Amino acid sequence: METNNHKEGKVAKTIEKETSKLPSDLFLWAAIGAMGASLTLKLLNKKNTALFVGQWASPFLLLGVYNKLVKLEGHDQDDKDPS
Which residues are listed as membrane-spanning (predicted)? Predict the structure, then answer.
């Protein structure tokens, strides 16, 4: 197996530590909320705002995937408990 000599920076480690505390379904509900808000705005004839808010769903889902990866994989292999 090939080892990777790249290490996470201090900022990335801090972000991973903090985001791993958030429940994964928070991001799913945020995405659903953005879609619902977008639909509501569209029905209120606020088309540009509806498009803007509707575009938030994808980043929320992407943040949810990042959150899940952080929970499953954590930091670098070198930072993990050697066992």
Answer: 26-44
20 touches 67 (CB < 8 A): yes
pTM for this predicted structure: 0.72
12 found inside a domain: no
Strands (E), 1-83: none
Q: Which domain holds residue 53?
A: 22-72
What is the number of residues in the chain? 83
pLDDT at 5: 61
